[in-house]
Fold:
Amino acid sequence: MRVSKTKQNLSVRAIAGLHVVILAWSLPKAKCTGLMGFAIHRTDHTEDEAYYLEGMKVFTATDPHLARGSLHSTRQQPIQSFGWSDYTAKPGHRYTYRVEALYGPPDNLEVKRSVAVEVKTEQEEVGAHTIYFNRGAAASQEYMRRFDHSKPLGDIPKATDPRWAWLSRGAAEAIQQFARRASGPNWSLRVCAYEFRWGEFAACLKEVADLGVDVRIVYDCNSNPPETDGSIFPRDKNRTTASDAGIQTFCTERITRSDIKSPPISHNKFIVLLKKGVPQAVLTGSTNFSVGGVYGQSNAVHIFDNKAAAAAYHDLWKLLAGNPKHNELRDSLTTVFDIPDDQPDRGTHAVFSPRNSLAALDWYAKLAKESEDAIFMTFAFGMNKLFKDAFANGSSRLRFALMDKLLSPGVRKDKREAAEAEMLAIRKLPEVRIAVGNRLTTNAFDNWLRERLTGLNSNVQYIHTKFMLLNPLSDDPVVIAGSANFSDASTDSNDENMLVIRGDKRVADIYLGEYMRLWNHYAFREWVANKAEGQELKPLDPDSRWWRSYFGKTQQSSQRQYFSGIEAS
Structure:
């Protein structure tokens, strides 16, 4: 849901997803003289609560010197930015946000402009698309405040430990609830997994199978190069999980190729629900069926209640369960979805891989480069050359990238300097905003707590989602999301799936809110990590100069104008 309002030259736009409400505002430059920042007051009409939202930065002159990690009311310690997001919003709630422009000395701030907007957050189970994002940000101040410097989590979730539910934020529950929709002999489940290493999920499948549900599982069983301990990932853990749950007889071991040393991976993560043999719905997304996938790195669970789409995924499952030859599979899947010359048709379409060319990846890159409004992309394994071109030379006035690492793990040492220089040149462009996963490793500055990771992920620790948003705030947004990284291998080699969704503003708002939650989180942490050792974060600016970078040809100005919807300089 999106709402905009202007009063006294202050323009405010709110974009409400499920758990996130993005607030963006703008003032003419001439009205910013003496501007000290903005306060945000929130009224929750559903729970009958009203208060000012809180931040962490303070004016030196009015610093109350509270305990490290404390929050402060934005009425006394305002936000010196033209945007803010409420990450404490709840699905299906009605909120009024009042944005107040504050002027005057830090010890006597005065409200001179004020705009209130009312929004209702989306509900999780409305319409054909149901979407869940886990927290994906254990390395956060909120996690440390709530759980008191908790040690890294173990390998097995414990029902009595509240950290698990907080990290899941409904993702783990959604996967199990989807499986439990199959409630008896008339029902079937078809699971396709790269990582099948989540004991709770395996036990859930055993539970429904005991009710008479026909459960069948295909998981990756390629003979990959061994890990340092000699085990084969993910094959050995997949087998152990199935055996421990007593469901190994339900499983088919997927081998993409047996004739090469490093075969393509069977990277799908989806479940098809069938009733009386008729596909009803599909659960897909980026979330591996592993503890680290559900509770650690950022991931999405996307449920699509659509019989035609479910049937397409069921056909895919049947193909993979037969362990077809690689070239035959590529030929079969290439015919499933014809790559358009331009924009996708309105509605939702599935793209399956491997394909016999890079046409799908070329198409995604073409859409990104030719988009004139804005693009938002996630990259778990570096940025493909096609998208480097789209970010460097594209038409979009705003281009966001959220990355687990700045460079691909495959970049050779002798190529790293040039690769880093290339990415640095891209991220300096005023239209481009890039954030890379990081955490606060010290609490020796400012008022922040030291952060730690869960310890559940070794390779991809931060950003594992795979999605692209094209023009998300328009009336005709495009969301492309699923299991496939935007890479050559994900297109012509690996078993993958993507959903292409055009024209659904609700879906776009949900994805955009979660994107910006993670982007803002990691952009700050990367910035801190790159600061000189011993250099402290600056307090709030008492001289009203902070707003100048939000005007002119700057990254902050582009972001202000796009999210607020106000083009005035």
DSSP finds 14 helices and 26 strands in the chain. The radius of gyration is 24 Å. The chain has two domains: 2-123, 129-527. Residues 2-123 form a domain with the Immunoglobulin-like fold (CATH 2.60.40.10).
